[in-house]
Amino acid sequence: MNNALADKALWDLRPGEAATVTGFGDALSVSYQGRVMEFGFQPGTRVQCLLNPGFGAPRVYGISNSVFSLDKEIAAAVFVTTRPPQEASS
Amino acid sequence: MRRVLLLGSPNSGKSSLFNRLTGLSQRVANYPGITVDVASGPMVNLPDTELVDFPGTYSLEPISGEEAIAVSFLNEALADDHVSHVLCVADATRLEKCLHFILQVIRECQHHQKPVTILANMSDVIRDNQLQFDPAGLAAALGVPVISVSAKESQGFEPLVECPAEGAAPATPPSRNWRETPNEILRGTAQQLAAQFSPKGDVLINSQLRLDRFFLSTALGGLAFFFIMFLFFQSIFTWSAPVMDAVEALVSGLGEAVVPLIPNRVIADFVADALFGGVGAFLVFVPQIFVLTLVIGIMEDSGYLARAALICHRPLRVFGLTGKSFIPLLSGVACAIPAIYAARSVDSPRQRMMTYLAIPLMPCSARLPVYALLIATFISNDTILFGLVGWQGLALFFIYFFGMLVALLVTGLVSKASKNKHSEQPFVLELPPYRLPTAKPLLRNAWNRCRQFVTQAGKIILAVTMVVWVLGYFPNGGADLGESWLGTLGQFVEPVFAPLGLDWRYGIAILTSFLAREVFVGTLGTIFGIEGSEENMLPLVDHIQASGLPLGSGIALLVFFAVALQCVSTVVILAREGSTRLALSMLLSYLVGAYLLSLIAFQIVSLLF
User: Given this model, what pLDDT does residue B418 score?
Assistant: First the structure.
C-alpha cells in the first residue's frame, strides 16, 4: 500500500461513496497518523463517507460498525483509492 | 486490599461495567497530580477487592497532555504490588477501534507481569442483531482470556467475580508474548484481527445513520439543535428554580430558627450573615449543578453531545475554540462553576484553557440582578415598533451580546498571539451509537459532582466569606458599613473608581461583589438604607437616580460587570480545575480589562450626552 495508488483524499469522497485507505500525507503529524490508524483508518481498510453536514463542518465516515467525524485538516491528509478492494490491495 | 484495574477506550461501555461490578458504590476522586477523575469502589461479592476505573483512552501513545497524564498514572498503577489483575473492556461490535489498544495493554501488563482479561462488552447487541462473534478464537489469537459480557443486562460476569481476586485467569489460552512487539507491528496485527473477528455487516451503522441523517442535516438538524438547546436552558433556569427556591427557603428558615438561640450578638451576626447568608448563597447553586450535570449526562449517554460538538466545531474554531467547548460555554450562561467542570470534556489542554478564558465572560445568571438594576436606573422603559420592542429589553440584549463578543474576541486574540505549529489540534471524534440513557448512573454522577462542589469549593468559599464579613462588621459591630474596615477600604479605593464617576459607595459595592456579583445590589441597598433590595429594586432605583449618578457611570458599571471576574467561587474552581496561576492571571487581567473598557465607555457616553 502506498500513496501512489491514491486517486483522491478522504475529504473528497461524496456521501455514500466508499474507498480504500492507501496512506497519509505529510501534513498530518505522526501522532495523529497513529491515532487515526488506531481508529481503524489503516492502509487497506475500506471506509465510507456517510454524511456531509455542510458549511465546512467535519464530515462523518464509517469503518465497519464504527463512525467517526474528521475535519478537513485530517480528512484531506488521508489518501484513498476508489478502485475495487481487490484492485486497491494489489 | 487488592486492586483490579479497569481499562478501556471511550464508548466501550466501561463505566456501565464499572457500575455493575461495584454495584454503584463508587467514590470519585481527583487523584494527586492528575486532572482526570479516577473512580474506585469495592467489587460486588469481593469486598476486599477494589476496582479502579481509569479514564477512557484510545491508546497508550498519548496525543494530548491529559492522555499523557492518564497513561503515566497507569504505568505507576501497573508497578503497584497491590494491583493483582487488569480488566480491559472492548466493544465487541466495534472491535476495529479497540484491538490496537487491547494489544498495547496486554504488552504493558506482560512487562509488569500482571494478568489481563478482555471483557468483550455488548453481547446483547451481538445477540439481538444476530451478529457473529468468536470470543474463544480471539482469546487464542491474543493469548489472554476473552469473556463475552453485557453490561446492560448484567450477564457474563460469573467467571469474573472469582478469578481476578485470586490472581488467576478464567479459561486461560496458551500465552503469546507481545512484550517486545513494536507499535507498528501491533497496529498491523490489530488490523488483521479486526478483519478476522469483528462482527461482519453494517446493520448497526445503518440504524445509527438514520438518526444522524436527521440530527446532522443542515436544516432539520439545525432546528433540532436549537430545540435541544432550548430544553437545556429551560432545565437550568426553569426546572431547577423550584429546588433552588426550596434550598434558599430551607437555609433562610434554618437561619431564622438558629440565630435567635445564640446569646452572643457578634456570633449571632456572624452565623446569620456569614454562614447562612454567605455560604447559604453558595449552596443555592447546588440544585442547578445537579440538573446541569444530569442534563449533560443525558446528552452524553444518548450520543447527542458528540453531534452537538460536530455542529459547533467550525464556527468556534475561528476563535481558537473547538466544538467540544460548546457545552461548557452554554452552561456558562447559567453559571460559570458547572461550566468549568463541563470543560473537562475538552481533551486538548490548549483548547480547554481557551474555554476557561471564555466561560467567565458568558453572561451568567448572577449578572442579571445587576443588569436589571442599572438598566432600570438609566434606560427609559419606553417602547418602539408599536410596543413590540422596549429600550430596556434591547439594552439587556446588547449587554448579553457584549459579554459573548468579548469572550470570543479574548479567545481569538489569545489563540492568535500564542499560535505555533503545534497549537492547532485537528478534530477527530468518535460518534458513539445512539443509546437510551440509564437513570441510576446519571443520578449517581450528578450527586457525586454536587458533593465534590460542596466539599472542595465550600471550604475556601467559607474562608473568604469570613474575611469579608469581618472587614464589613468591625470595628463598629456592623452598625454602619461606611465606618467599617471595608468602608475605610472603599474610601481608600475611591480614587480608583472616581475616573468612572463613581463615589466610595459604589466602590464598596464593587468590592463586596467580588464575593458574588449579585451582592452588588444588596450592598447598595444596605448603604442607601433599603431592606430587601434584592427582591424589590424600585426604591433603590429611585435612590440611585436621586444621587445624581451620571449615565456614563451607569454604562461604565454595566461594561465593568460584563467583563470583570467578580466571583470567588469561579476563581476557586478555576484554580482547582486549571491552575492557581491561570485563575489569578484571569482575575487580574479581566479586572484591568473591565476597568479600561468601562473608562472608555464612560468617556464616550459623557462626551455624547
Answer: 81
A73 touches chain B (CB under 8 A): yes
Please give the Cα distance from B116 to B102 (Å, whole number): 10
DSSP line for B36-71 = SEEEEEEETTEEEEEEEEPPP-S-SS-SSHHHHHHH
- The DSSP element (H or E) to which B383 belongs, if any, is strand B383-384
Q: Residue A28: list chain B partners with CB under 8 A.
A: 426
pLDDT tens digits for B253-291? Answer: 888 899 899 998 889 888 887 777 767 766 777 887 788
Give me A60's grid cell.
462523518
**Residue B600 pLDDT more than 90?**
yes
- Burial of residue B178 (number of CB atoms within 10 Å: 0-12, 13-18, 19+): buried
**Would the pLDDT of B164 be above 70?**
no
- Which residue segments constitute the domains of chain B, with CATH numbers given? 2-200 (3.40.50.300), 363-410+480-609 (no CATH)
pLDDT of A1: 47
Residue A45 contacts B where some CB pair is shorter than 8 Å: yes
Helical ranges in B391-502 per DSSP H: 391-417, 439-452, 458-473, 485-497
Measured between beta carbons, the chain A residues lying within 8 angstroms of B61 are: 31, 34, 38
What is the ipTM, given to two decimal places? 0.91
**Bridge partners, residue B5, by sequence:** B52, B86
| A40 touches B at CB < 8 Å | yes
Residues 6+ apart with CB under 8 A from B417: none
- Indicate the burial class of B236 (C-beta count within 10 angstroms; 0-12, 13-18, 19 or more): buried
Q: Are B504 and B494 in contact (CB under 8 A)?
A: yes
Give the best residue of A11, A22, A41, A64 to mutate against chain B (max B CB count within 10 A): A64
Question: Is CATH 1.20.58.410 what the domain over A3-82 is classified as, yes or no?
Answer: no
Cα distance from A38 to chain B (closest Cα, Å)? 6
**CA R_g for chain B:** 28
Q: List the single residue in A with minimal CA-CA distance to B205.
A: A65
Residue A19: pLDDT above 90? yes
C-alpha cell at B540: 433603590
